[in-house]
Amino acid sequence: MSAVPSALVADGLVRRYGDRLVVDHASLAIEPGETVSLMGASGCGKTTLLHMLGTLDRPDEGHLALEGRDVARLSESQRTELRRERLGFVFQQSNLLPELTARENVALPAWRATGRRRDALARADALLANFGLAARADARGHVLSLGEAQRVAVARAIINGPRLLLADEPTGSLDSDAAREVLAALQAACSTGTALLVVTHDPTVAGRCQRRLTMVDGRIEIEDVGPGSPGA
Amino acid sequence: MRTLAPVGPGPRRSLLRPSVALFLARRGLRESPLSTGLMIAAVAVGIGFEIPSAANLRGYRAELLTQSLSNGFGDVRVRPRRGLYIRDADGWAARLSRIPGVIEATPVVSAPASVTGKGHTSSFGLLGVEPRAAHHPYRLVSGQPLAEGDRDGILLGSSIAQRLDVGVGDDVELRIMLSAYPRLVLDDDGYGVYPMTIRGLVGFNAADSAFVTRSFLVAELGDETAASAVLLHARAHEDAQSLALAARRMAPDLEVRSWMDDSAYLRSSARAVETLGGASWLLGILAVGIPVMALLYINTLNRRRQIGLLTAMGFSRLDLFVTFLLQALFLGTAGVLLGGIVALALVRYLVAHPIFDWQGFVVRPVLALTDVGRTAGAILATTVAAGSYPAWRAARVDPSRILRGIE
After folding, report:
1. Does A192 contact B14 at a Cβ distance shorter than 8 Å?
2. Is A210 helix (H, G, I), strand (E, B) or coil?
3. B172, B253, B287, B391 — which has fewest CB within 10 A?
4. Nearest to A113 among B9, B305, B403 (CB)
5. In chain A, what are the domain boundaries?
6. How far apart (Å, rounded) are the C-alpha atoms in residues A123 and A111?
7. In B, residues 10-39, which contact A (CB 8 Å cutoff)?
8. pLDDT band at residue A226 using 50, 70 and 90 as cut-offs
9. Would the CA dihedral through A77, A79, A83, A87 be positive or negative?
10. Is B405 on the interface with A (CB under 8 A)?
11. B11-34: per-residue pLDDT in tens?
12. Which residues 163-202 of B have a C-beta within 8 angstroms of A?
C-alpha cells in the first residue's frame, strides 16, 4: 500500500438526469502527478463525470475519494475548501471573469484562499511571466486571444498548488499553435506533482497523457496506457 | 518553461473573505454600467420623490394646524357652560395662561352681524379680539392690524370683501344683532348700527368672518369683562388633550374642549394627511424595491457563468451571497446619496415656489430630519432586502448545470 494516497479514486459513479442515465458506474483512479485523458463522443457523459470528480456535482451512486478523503462525508464548506485548495479547473471557453484583468483573474483564487492580495498578485505575475503572458497581465478577458485566455485560465487553476487539475476540452476552441501552448502550460503545471485529468476530443492532447480513457454511453470502457506511463 | 514551485495558500481559512467580496461586488457593478445606472436611478428617484412629498405633506399639515389653531380658535377652547359669555374672562385668561405648556390665553367675544357696502349686504359671525395678543383667530392678508382702542376699524374676511366689492380703506356699515342680549335697550329692530372703516383683509379660515376690537364689542354688549370664549394656545398642538384636562380641573364650571374634540373636520383632515403620507411612503418604498429587485435578479441571471466559475475556484455560498448583497448595498447607498441631493434641491425649489398659495394659506415643504432619516433608512433597507433574494439565488446556483450551459 502506497503511503501517498491516490489523487483521485472513483468507484461506480452514477449520475442520472431524470430518467436519463448520463454516467453509468464509472470507475477510475489517478495517482499523484499522473496525466490522464478522457475521450468520447459528445454527450457521452465526460463533462458530467468531470464535474462529479471536481465536487461541482454529486453522484447519485458510487464513491469518490480525493487524496484519500471520502467526498460524500464532507460538508458543503469542506467541499468548497477542497475545490479552493486541492483542485484546479480549466474549462473549454469563457473561463475568465470579464470584469477582471488577466492578472486579477489569476490572483483571485489565491487572494480568496489566503486573504493576502499583494502576495496573490505577485504570484499571479510570476505565473503569467512563466506562461509568456507578462505583457498581457493588465488586459481584460475580452481583449485576450482564445489561446491567451486559456493559458491565463491554466495559471489561475494552478495558483493555489492543486493536487488534481481537471481540464474540460481546454484546447477545444483553439487553433493548433494555441493548443500546443496551452498543452505545454498544462504539462508544466503537472511537473510539480499535480495530477491531470483532461477531457478532450483531440488525439494529440490525449497522446501527450500517460493514460487514455474512453467513455461510451456513460461508461469508461477502454483504457489505454501511453508510452509516458510509469507502468508502460 | 521554468518549473514553478507550488505555493499553496496560507493557513488562514474562512467561509468569507469580505475584502474579496467587496472587490468583486465593485467590479461586477462596473462591468454593467447601464443596469448599475438604472438601479441607482431607481433608488434616487424613489428618494428624490419621497422626501419632497413627505415634506409637502408635513408642510400642508403644519399650515393647516397653524391656520386653524395658531391663526384660528386655539388648541383648547374654553366656553361658558350656560349663558352666552364668561364673566371675568380676563381673570380666567390670566389663570389659564399659567398652565404649563400654554403660551397664551386670549378672550374673544362673538355676535352675529352683517356688513353693507356698495349696496350689498353680507351676514357672518363677528368676533371681538384683543389687538395686543400674539395670536389672533385670523391671518392678515392685506392692510393693517387693529389697534388697541380702535372703535371704528374692522378686519373683513376676503370672501366677504369680494362679495361686497370692497377693499382696505373702504367704509362699510356694520349691523350687530344685539337682541340676544335682552337687558340692553336697543332700537326697534334689535340691531346696533355702526359706520366702520376696513383696516385690513383676512383670509382662509377667516375669509367669511369679520373682526373688531373686543373693547368695542363688549362695550356694546354692556359687560366689559365678558367673553364668548377664552382661546388657549399651546406650545405643541399635540398637547391639546392634556392641556384641556388641566384647564378642566382649573375651571370645572366652564366647558373646555381640545381642538381634537372641538373640530372633527380638522382632526379628520390631519389624520387624512398622515394616512396619505404613510401610503405615499409605502408606494415610494415599493416603487424602489420592485425594480431594484428585478434588475438585480436579471443581473444575477446574466452573471451565472461567472458564479459557476467562482464556485469552481472555491468561493463559498457565503462569498457569493455577500458579494451580491454588497452590490445591493452599493446601489442603495449611491442611490440614497444621489436621491438625497435631488430631494434637497427639489425641497429648496418648492420652498421658493409653493405648490399651494391661496388667501394666505401657503403650503411650503417642511423638511424634518426624522422624515429624511426614516425614508433614507427604509429605502436603503428595501434595496438591500430586494437584493437579498437575487443574492440568495446566486449563492444557490448549481455550478455544474451552469458550466455545462444547461441554464
Report:
1. no
2. coil
3. B253
4. B9
5. 8-225
6. 10
7. 10, 12-15, 17, 19-20, 24, 27-28, 30-31
8. low
9. positive
10. no
11. 446 778 899 999 999 999 988 888
12. none
Whether A80 sits inside 8 A of B316 (CB atoms) is yes
Q: Which run of H or E residues covers position B313?
A: helix B304-313
Domain A8-225 carries which CATH code?
Answer: 3.40.50.300
Cβ separation A83–B313 shorter than 8 A: yes
More confident residue, A227 or A196: A196
Residues linked to residue B89 through DSSP beta bridges, in sequence order: none
Give strand ranges (E) for B118-271: 120-129, 140-143, 153-157, 171-177, 191-202, 209-213, 229-234, 254-258
pLDDT at A225 over 80: no
Mean pLDDT of chain A: 89
Query: A140: which 3 cell numbers?
Result: 481584460
Q: Which bin fits B382, alpha (ψ -120 to 50), beta or left (φ > 0)?
A: alpha
Q: Per residue in A28-86, pLDDT tens?
A: 999 999 999 999 998 899 999 999 999 999 999 999 999 999 999 999 989 999 999 99
Ramachandran class of A218: left when φ > 0, alpha when ψ lies in -120 to 50, beta otherwise: left
Chain segment A165-195, per-residue pLDDT in tens: 999 998 887 888 888 888 888 888 888 889 9
- Please state, as a whole number, how many other Cβ atoms lie within 10 Å of the Cβ of residue A77: 14
Rounded CA-CA distance A177/A181 in Å is 6
Q: How many H-runs (helices) and E-runs (strands) does chain A carry?
A: 7, 10
- CB contact at 8 A, B281 and B375: yes
As beta bridge partners, residue B254 has: B80
| Residue among A98, A158, A160 whose CB faces B31 most closely | A98
Verify whether the Cβ–Cβ distance A126 to B30 is below 8 Å.
no
| Whole-number Å distance between alpha carbons of B19 and B404 | 30
Q: What average pLDDT does range A113-127 have in this prediction?
A: 94
Q: Which contiguous run of DSSP H or E holds residue B364?
A: none
Nearest to A161 among B6, B31, B312 (CB): B6
Residue A218 in contact with residue A45, Cβ under 8 Å?
A: yes
- For cell 335697550, the residue is B185
Q: Which amino acid is at A87?
A: L
Strands B120-129 vs B209-213: parallel, antiparallel or unpaired: parallel
Distance, CA of B14 to CA of A227 (rounded, Å): 43
pLDDT-flagged residues of chain B (< 70):
1-13, 179-191, 406-407
Q: A20, exposed or middle or buried, with CB in 10 Å at 0-12, 13-18, 19+?
A: exposed
What sign for the dihedral angle of Cα B288, B289, B294, B298?
positive
Residues in A touching B20 (Cβ below 8 Å): 108, 111-112, 115
Average pLDDT rounded to a whole number, residues A195-212: 91
B323 interfacial to chain A (CB closer than 8 Å): no
Cβ–Cβ contacts within 10 Å for residue A100, how many?
20
